[in-house]
Amino acid sequence: xxxxxRWPIGLMFTLIGALLAVxxxxxxxxxxxxxxxxxxxxxxxxGAVLLVxxxxxxxxxxxxxxxxxxx
Amino acid sequence: MQVLLAPIDYAIxxxxxxxxxxxxxxxxxxxxxxxxxxxSARSIPTWVTGLAFISANLGALELxxxxxxxxxxxxxxxxxxxxxxxxxxxxxxxxxxxxxxGSKARSVPExxxxxxxxxxxxxxxxxxxxxxxxxSGISMNALAKLLNQLLGWDYNVALWVCSGVVLVYVLxxxxxxxxxxxxxxxxxxxxxxxxVVYLGLxxxxxWHAMNxxxxxxxxxxxxxxxxxxxxAANAWTSAWQPLIGGPSSNPMGVDMFAMVFGxxxxxxxxxxxxxxxxxxxxxxxxxxAAARNTPLVAxxxxxxxxxxxxxxxxxxxxLTSIPSKNYRIPPPILSDAVYARAIDAVKNASxxxxxxxxxxxxxxxxxxxxxxxxxxxxxxxxxxxxxxEEIHRRLYYSIAENDxxxxxxxxxxxxxxxxxxxxxxxxxxxxxxxxxAGNVTAFNTVWTYDxxxxxxxxxxxxxxxxxxxxxxxxxxxxxxxxxxYFASMYNNAMDIIQLVFGFVNAPLFATFLLxxxxxxxxxxxxxxxxxxxxxxxxxxxxxxxxxxxxxxAGHVINGMKGGYLTVVSQFxxxxxQNFWLAAFAFTACFVLTLIISLATKRTKxxxxxxxxxxxxxxxxxxxxxVWYQQPGVVGTILLICCIxxxxxxx
Lengths: 71, 650
Known about the structure:
By secondary structure, chain A is mainly alpha-helical.
């Protein structure tokens, strides 16, 4: 199919990861907010994980596009 | 039960919906023929079909149900993966995929038509079409109900809006859209739930601390209303050892034979090797090697899913057993009015007559209660008046019944701050919607090719079938919405329908097994054998039941649980009854098909059956592939990994 699925996956997780991470940075000082996650700023950490995953997918899509179709 | 979502949560949800709709619109440009739309024109890479294969099965109901079973039965639930899925997926890849893919059939019923005749195809396709509609309706009903309870959305609005989103992307991008969003959903679920599992495990003090809590629970599960009888300490933490002692020594109430033959062979091979919903994903692969590798790719994440979907249930039990964690497996949802009545009952109860107090509070709640907790509550309230909120809170902990289906959501609520909450809820939303999309895309293919083209309008142009595929997609979504309303109104009718489909599916694998591996199997044999198998399972259900379903006088309480004709045999649990029913139906279908085939003449010659039957099909040469792409080699390695997992959790 003409659309490499790594583009939408990569873009979506980059966006959501960035949203979460920025929100985590902004709310980092709010200890009450992170009581439920055992005092861990899970938004910042997990946002960063999603961001890395998303960028990795985008990287795959870019390098994949340069190769001829197939594997 | 309601939660308030922050703007960040909505932002994540909207981002996801925008992306799935966007994918549909992008793919719409490539939909030129009916095969593009209905079968993805066999063009998708292996890792994508592999993840979609597993994702089509990982609906939200699976997520909710596996966490529930994890709480009820512990690590033994993993049998549904390590026994009930991996071996069948490897078998599909190595032995069956060559026939499905090589025969150029566009659907599983079409394969049946090539191998047998129109009758077998008709029976299978009609049953499958009806089943997919109900399955997608059940999924959408659950989603709309969840959005209603959790976010306070109107049931109707939630149902129509979510169905509308699914319609847009399936109608535009067809099967490819469904497969792509399933892959997206796969990553959403893994990445959305992993942090919840991590936080939960950390909170109970890690894996070993969780296990030692569970070992204390296992010897007295009645304290948490998990089970009314005690087990050995490892009943929740070992997968196989509790099975050895027979049905009474494990919380599932299942014996070794039922587990290995009933679940591990009949049910599991019947589902993974013949259900078009999952097989369709492999058929969309770009070549034979990719098609065969699809279930193998899928089996890698499948093997490790128990840690994502079952462990939350075990965490919930461990948390409940530690009072300082302020958590319990949620009780059945009760309205505020019921709690208000119960609060009054607590206030009016006499602390000196604890039996009467327990009874009046239990009656007000309409549920079983822990006598000690109610007695203490009444006594404390008599010594110094408690606030209504405090009484409400303690009543919540006094209900001696569990709503296991609420486990996963209660953990999400407990551990997710705004932000992560949006991610986890979006993952859940995603899996409900892709459950509908998966069923609708399987439905429209079977309808268009196996019912419409086969019976109503053969020899039309491809443009006509493409048009029909799109029309039936809309119709399929509308029927699913109807089924959702039906499910929300007639719970019992829905149970009957699922029961009936259990009967239809149980014997199916016998037909495929004989058809694929024995050239002498005739169409009449297959058709009558299948009917006989369905009849056998209905009969089996009519004369057996679960022992709790028989009252002291020996009468059956609920005919839905079997035994409505007479009771020949009683099983310790519904799960055991199901597994034995499957084993019985399979055997009946197998024997009948065998005998009738021998008694009837073959209508198809060896030449007709080339590519459809094992002994008449040239072996696929895969020497040109590197070893890690050869299905036989990879399958063996995966099987060994699966056995190792079983040994570790022995």
